[in-house]
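stage 2 :: seqdesign
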C-alpha cells in the first residue's frame, strides 16, 4: 500500500453483489476527501479482475457473492497483491468467524450492521497498516 501524503487519496474497490449496497458505500466513502472509489465488483471473479486493473489500496469485500465468494477471492488477491488491504464486509459477526478471517490473512472485518463510522474507522486503520478486528 502506498504511503499517504496530504495530496494522495486512498483508492478503494467495493465488491458486493447487491448494487444498492455498492452505491450506498460509494456515497459514504466519496463524502471523505481522502477516499476515492476507483471501482465496483458484483462477484468474486470481478473483484479479482478489477483489483489487477485498478490496483486499489483497500478492497471492501462482501463475504457471500456469486461465482466466487469473497473470502476465496480475497485469498487470490492477497497472493497477487499482498499490499492491498482487504476489509471483509458481512452480516456474520461471530468471534470465531472473525478469528478465521484474521488467520487467513485478511486485514479487517466490518459488520454490515455497523454504522458508517465503523467502516471509516476500519479503512483508516488498514490504511495505516493496522489490523481491524473489533471484539
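stage 2 :: out
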Amino acid at each position: 500500500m502506498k504511503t499517504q501524503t496530504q495530496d494522495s487519496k486512498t483508492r478503494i474497490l467495493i465488491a458486493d453483489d447487491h448494487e444498492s449496497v455498492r452505491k450506498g458505500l460509494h456515497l459514504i466513502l466519496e463524502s471523505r476527501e481522502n477516499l476515492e472509489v476507483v471501482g465496483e465488483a458484483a462477484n468474486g471473479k470481478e473483484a479479482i479482475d478489477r483489483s489487477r486493473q485498478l490496483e486499489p489500496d483497500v478492497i471492501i469485500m462482501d463475504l457471500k457473492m456469486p461465482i466466487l465468494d469473497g473470502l476465496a477471492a480475497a485469498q487470490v488477491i492477497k497472493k497477487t497483491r499482498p499490499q492491498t488491504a482487504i476489509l471483509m464486509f458481512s452480516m456474520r459477526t461471530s468471534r470465531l468467524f472473525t478469528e478465521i478471517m484474521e488467520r487467513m490473512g485478511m486485514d479487517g472485518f466490518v459488520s454490515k450492521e455497523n454504522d458508517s463510522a465503523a467502516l471509516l474507522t476500519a479503512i483508516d486503520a488498514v490504511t495505516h497498516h493496522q489490523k481491524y478486528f473489533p471484539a
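stage 3 :: structure notes
- The mean pLDDT is 92.
- Residues 10-127 form a domain with the Rossmann fold fold (CATH 3.40.50.2300).
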